[in-house]
């Protein structure tokens, strides 16, 4: 198949797991397709053993939902599917239903660039059961990856302590779509530019890059290569100095830098891509300073991540700019966020929502029931706790208790009267109509930076971060506990039979 702009052939409705289609069919057969339900998307543990996670991907979700529709090509594909007995897999009337179905859900979500924590809803979907179910896989696909990469980028930028981080992982990224999404999420997480030119075009991200070792090797000498590059780009020369001998490469860069200066131009800096980065950067810094280039930047690359950058900082390496590729765009050492999408309520015959619980032997895997939301409390601009609560539940302004959903002993008393609060789930769609105006990428990136500033530095430690308080409001905790006990009693009664 040719990789072209028409690869996906328009609709992305079939970008889902097959069991979503089979469940959709079973809902339809059971006359449950239009029964209203509520699903919540959340994650259970921070990635990278960190203390925070940075939400990203909402703009992709909005775009997906706006165009959510089964087109004729999708229906034709499903129509040809056969069961094991050779019969058609799906009733033609069901396929007609899918063809006519229009997206009509309510979606509330946490804005991109928001710091988020385990078990709190990132997206809440309310609507016909069949539509909610069909949205599970694409929503998880989008949020899992982009949130993971944005978080990795934020950690790397925290390690760099304000110095520019360039993302250049395109060649190592997980395919074309993964590369574009990673570049976008990396920019949200704080990277200053990308090497991905298409990402620059599509998202307005600044692009950066100079030359590779192949440029140097294509000339008889390194000096000739530098001179030729300076001739082509006199105003943006950063020379890659480690093709042959790093320190000799610095000497050649200085020679060309002097030639540029004689023409009224200034060398921007050098890049080191191999070897002992601490040693060579310090040697290069001394050589550049002594030659009269104190403002020349030293860019470092070579499989960097937040831990290596922290180590180089500790060694007082003379590095001003950090180029990070593979370990950023592949979220190295944690391949997936692990967010899940669970049914939390379904409308009963009386028109009210009935909370639903999934019971597990692992407390970590017991979901939060009901139509719930999350509030963040601030004191003097710093985030102090997140409370997951039932919508419509009155919160005592003079005090309530939040209880960690995975550890009943971990509790915190909240006095809302003395805090500023923010409801984190924002209305995105109502009855399928878009109500949210997406901010531009620069605004999202600024929000991410501001959000990280609201966290105490102990929550942002790369190793053994302090635990940020997130808990169920006590009424929701009691509801969840009661539902678990009831489910266990039902299970025991079934065993006795």
Automatic annotation (TrEMBL):
One of its GO terms (cellular component) is cytosol. It comes from the Bacteria. InterPro entries: Aldolase_TIM, N/Namide_PRibTrfase, NAPRTase_C, NAPRTase_N, Nic_PRibTrfase-Fam, Nic_PRibTrfase_pncB, Nicotinate_pribotase-like_C. SUPFAM superfamilies: Nicotinate/Quinolinate PRTase C-terminal domain-like, Nicotinate/Quinolinate PRTase N-terminal domain-like. Its EC number is 6.3.4.21. Residues 373-479 form the Nicotinate phosphoribosyltransferase C-terminal domain. Keywords: Glycosyltransferase, Ligase, Phosphoprotein, Pyridine nucleotide biosynthesis, Transferase. It catalyses: 5-phospho-alpha-D-ribose 1-diphosphate + nicotinate + ATP + H2O = nicotinate beta-D-ribonucleotide + ADP + phosphate + diphosphate. It is an enzyme of class 6 (ligase). Pathway: Cofactor biosynthesis; NAD(+) biosynthesis; nicotinate D-ribonucleotide from nicotinate: step 1/1. One of its GO terms (molecular function) is nicotinate phosphoribosyltransferase activity. Transiently phosphorylated on a His residue during the reaction cycle. Phosphorylation strongly increases the affinity for substrates and increases the rate of nicotinate D-ribonucleotide production. Dephosphorylation regenerates the low-affinity form of the enzyme, leading to product release. One of its GO terms (biological process) is NAD+ biosynthetic process via the salvage pathway. CDD domains: NAPRTase_A (cd01570). Belongs to the NAPRTase family. Catalyzes the first step in the biosynthesis of NAD from nicotinic acid, the ATP-dependent synthesis of beta-nicotinate D-ribonucleotide from nicotinate and 5-phospho-D-ribose 1-phosphate. This is Nicotinate phosphoribosyltransferase.
């Amino acid at each position: 198949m040719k990789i072209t702009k028409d690869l996906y052939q328009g609709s992305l409705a079939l970008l889902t797991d097959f069991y979503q289609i089979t469940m959709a069919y079973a809902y339809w057969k059971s006359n449950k397709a239009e029964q209203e339900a509520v699903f919540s998307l959340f994650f259970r543990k921070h990635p990278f053993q960190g203390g925070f996670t940075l939400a990203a991907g909402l703009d992709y979700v909005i775009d997906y939902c706006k165009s959510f529709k089964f087109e004729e090509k999708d229906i034709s594909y499903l129509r040809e599917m056969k069961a094991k007995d050779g019969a058609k897999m799906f009733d033609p009337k069901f396929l007609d239903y899918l063809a006519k179905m229009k997206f009509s859900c309510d979606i509330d979500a946490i804005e991109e660039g928001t710091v988020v924590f385990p078990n709190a809803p990132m997206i809440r979907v309310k609507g016909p059961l069949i539509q909610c179910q069909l949205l599970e896989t694409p929503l998880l696909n989008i949020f899992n990856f982009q949130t993971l990469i944005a978080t990795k980028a934020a950690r790397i930028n925290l390690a760099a302590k304000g110095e520019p981080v360039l993302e250049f992982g395109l060649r190592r990224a997980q395919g074309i779509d993964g590369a574009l999404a990673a570049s976008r999420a990396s920019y949200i997480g704080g990277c200053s530019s990308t090497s991905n030119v298409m990402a620059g075009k599509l998202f307005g991200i600044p692009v950066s890059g100079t030359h590779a070792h192949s440029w140097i090797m294509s000339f008889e000498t390194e000096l000739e290569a530098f001179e030729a590059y300076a001739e082509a780009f006199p105003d943006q020369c950063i020379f890659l100095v480690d093709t042959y001998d790093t320190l000799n490469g610095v000497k050649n860069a200085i020679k060309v830098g002097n030639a540029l200066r004689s023409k009224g131009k200034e060398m921007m800096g050098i890049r080191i891509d191999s070897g002992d980065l601490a040693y060579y950067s310090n040697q290069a810094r001394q050589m550049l300073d002594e030659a009269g280039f104190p403002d020349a930047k030293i860019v470092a690359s070579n499989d960097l991540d937040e831990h290596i950058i922290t180590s180089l900082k500790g060694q007082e390496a003379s590095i001003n700019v950090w180029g990070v590729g593979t370990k950023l765009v592949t979220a190295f050492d944690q391949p997936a966020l692990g967010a899940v999408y669970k049914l939390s309520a379904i409308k009963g015959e009386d028109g009210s929502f009935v909370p639903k619980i999934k019971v597990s032997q692992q407390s970590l895997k017991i979901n939060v029931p009901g139509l719930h939301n999350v509030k963040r409390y601030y004191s003097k601009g710093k985030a102090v706790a997140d409370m997951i609560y039932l919508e419509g539940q009155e919160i005592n302004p003079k005090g309530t208790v939040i209880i960690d959903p995975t550890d009943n002993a971990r509790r915190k008393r909240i006095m809302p009267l003395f805090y500023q609060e923010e409801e984190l789930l924002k209305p995105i769609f109502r009855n399928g109509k878009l109500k949210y105006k997406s901010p531009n990428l620069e605004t999202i990136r600024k929000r991410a930076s501001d959000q990280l500033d609201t966290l105490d530095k102990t929550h942002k430690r790369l190793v053994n971060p302090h635990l940020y308080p997130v808990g169920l409001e006590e009424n929701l905790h009691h509801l969840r506990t009661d539902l678990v006990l009831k489910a266990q009693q039902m299970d025991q009664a079934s065993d006795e039979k």
